[in-house]
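User: Second chain of the day. Same drill as before.
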Amino acid sequence: MKKLLFTVLCALTFSLITLKVNAQATDGHDYKSAIGGRFGVANGITFKTFLQDQRALDVILNFRSNSKYSTFKFVGLYEIHNPIESAPGLQWYYGGGAGIGTYKNKVTDNSGAAFSIDGALGLDYKIDGAPIDLSLDWKPEMRFAPDNTGVDFAGFGLSIRFAF
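Assistant: Same format as last time:
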């Protein structure tokens, strides 16, 4: 099940990259798509692409582990970006979405499917003249899993992406 989920998620991510690689940047931001790493409470791979104007889709495949749980999750977020006029290349954004994945309770050795409703609030900065995009954000989530249901406000992270 984990291998199938991972394969499907990788295929979806690379399909999105292939579809967007030749697209032009739209008004209000300096790139069309970007791919890279997300580092924080959960670490993983992130792919962001602008769908139209200020609206973007951020797809995250992440891994998280602490003393009690380990999770592997695919998250899709719909984000609305707003430029900060006094700082070219800098935008603030908000949005929401959902996640699906697997979890393992390290104490009881139980494991299973995990679902979440996710939010996003952050800053996005495209470095002028370089193909680098940085995002600093907060992604709270409401989790639904037999051993791991609750609200998690600890989802801070830094994304470093290659923009194209």
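The mean pLDDT is 86.

User: Great, on to the next one.
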